[in-house]
Amino acid sequence: MMRLVPFLLCICLTDAAAFHHYVHNQRVIGGHDAAPNTWRWQVSLQYDSYSDGSYYHLCGGTIIDSFYIMTAAHCILSVQANRYLVVVGEHNLDKYEGSEQFIRVERIILHPGWNGDLAKGNDLALLKLFNPVQNNGYVEIANLPRPDHVLPHGFPCYITGWGLVGYGGGIAAVLQEAPIPVVEHAVCSQPGWWGGAALNTMVCAGGDGVISGCQGDSGGPLSCYSDGAWRVHGVVSYGPAGQCNQVTKPTVFTRVSAFEDWIYSIVMSV
């Protein structure tokens, strides 16, 4: 049986006290540089693995409220909130461009159904920030889909992130984007695709052997233009072990529309 893996990756950043970024990171497979100020809800979630003030790009994320970030539960390596840093308005991890905001995390909320098994789903977490995201023209709160909205087969979406490009591939510090069509559950759950590991609380996209998410893209958004606006329909969860862009092994996302009651219960709580 095909082994699934989370799209998780730590890439070291230096000079963390000033929050400057000098690392070359790798990219969404099959993607290209996103234009600055395009995916304004995209987040770089960074982690201090040694508690020494040096932060690493770990995962992606999505701004869903001025105080809340949505990401994947498997991106949470520690329950110590002070080991995480959220960077919004980010574009090039190599440069400080003046658009970035660096915000500490106050609280981590894992979905209560998450048990560490990607195939069981519920791979979702919310991060409450110490300080709100400020509207500086480079950030935006994401629109979410209608509750329980399921996109049809072939619906066009975009994956974005700073994840690996693949074995021996080029590197890019700039946020990458790639068009990636939805694969409906009836197809994605077939033998030879993801079978029983694809739940109806997930969204599959890709699987053409060309474009996919990869390590470092975890927690990032699947953005789709639906109901008259760009909306975040998915959170990057897992893909195949080894080469990420495999035929009939699409990138699998947590389906946001299946969890909106829980999301709003947290965001709207006092």
From TrEMBL:
Q: What is the name of the protein in this document?
A: Elastase-1-like
One CC-aspect GO term = extracellular space
GO terms (molecular function) for this protein are:
serine-type endopeptidase activity
Q: Where is the Peptidase S1 domain?
A: 28-268
Task: Give one Pfam hit by family name.
Answer: Trypsin
Q: Does the entry feature the keyword Chloroplast, yes or no?
A: no
Q: SMART domains under this entry?
A: Tryp_SPc
List UniProt keywords, sorted A-Z: Disulfide bond, Hydrolase, Protease, Serine protease, Signal
Carries keyword DNA-binding? no
| Organism of derivation | Betta splendens
Cleaved signal peptide residues: 1-18
The superkingdom of the source organism is Eukaryota
Q: What PANTHER family does this protein's entry cite?
A: CHYMOTRYPSIN-LIKE ELASTASE FAMILY MEMBER, CHYMOTRYPSIN-LIKE ELASTASE FAMILY MEMBER 3B
**What gene is it encoded by?**
LOC114852896
Q: Name one GO biological process term.
A: proteolysis
Question: What InterPro entries does this protein's entry cite?
Answer: Peptidase_S1_Elastase_sf (IPR050850), Peptidase_S1_PA (IPR009003), Peptidase_S1_PA_chymotrypsin (IPR043504), Peptidase_S1A (IPR001314), Trypsin_dom (IPR001254), TRYPSIN_HIS (IPR018114), TRYPSIN_SER (IPR033116)
What lineage does UniProt assign to this protein's organism? Eukaryota, Metazoa, Chordata, Craniata, Vertebrata
